[in-house]
Design a protein that fits this description.
Layout lengths: L6 E5 L2 E10 L4 E3 L3 E2 H4 L6 E9 L3 E8 L15 E4 L10 E6 L6 E8 L6 E9 L1
Antiparallel strand pairs: 1-2, 2-10, 3-9, 4-9, 5-8, 5-10, 6-7, 6-9
Length: 130
C-alpha cells in the first residue's frame, strides 16, 4: 500500500491534501486547515477519498471558517459520513469517495470522530479541491 504523506500538492489546478491518522477509541482528530481561497477556484469542487483500517467506527464531518481562526460546523451541514468502518464502501473494503459542498468559506477542516468506543481506527484520506 502506498504511504500517504500529509500535505498539499497541486496538479493541473487540482489540489490534493493527504491525511493519515490513527484515532483512538472515542478519540477525535481534526485535520489542519485546507485553504480554499487558493484552491477553490471557479469550479468549487471538494472530494474526499477515505480508506479505513482497524476495528473502530469513524464519523466524518467538516468545519469551515471565514477568518482562519474560528472553525464552526454550519447549521446547514450534515455529516459527510456517520458510520464508516473497514467493511464500508461499495465493495465493503473500507474504501469510498464522497463529495463535499460547504458554503462559501476561506478554509475547511475535516473532523474524524471514533464512535465505536472500544477500538481504534486508522484513516487515510485524500481531499481534492478544484
Amino acid at each position: 500500500m502506498t504511504q500517504l504523506v500529509q500535505g498539499t500538492k497541486e496538479y493541473r489546478n487540482v489540489y490534493s491534501t493527504a491525511i493519515s491518522q490513527e484515532i483512538a477509541d472515542s478519540g477525535i482528530y481534526t485535520s489542519d486547515a485546507i485553504d480554499l481561497t487558493a484552491n477553490y477556484g471557479i469550479v468549487g469542487t471538494i472530494s474526499l477519498q477515505l480508506i479505513a483500517t482497524g476495528d473502530g467506527v469513524v464519523k466524518v464531518e467538516y468545519l469551515i471558517s471565514a477568518d482562519d481562526t474560528n472553525y464552526i460546523t454550519p447549521s446547514s451541514a450534515s455529516e459527510i459520513v456517520t458510520v464508516f468502518t473497514k467493511t464500508s464502501g461499495t465493495a465493503q473494503d473500507g474504501k469510498d469517495f464522497f463529495s463535499i459542498t460547504p458554503p462559501l468559506c476561506k478554509s475547511i477542516k475535516l473532523k474524524f470522530t471514533e464512535t465505536g468506543t472500544s477500538d481504534s481506527i486508522t484513516i487515510n484520506a485524500i481531499v481534492l479541491t478544484k
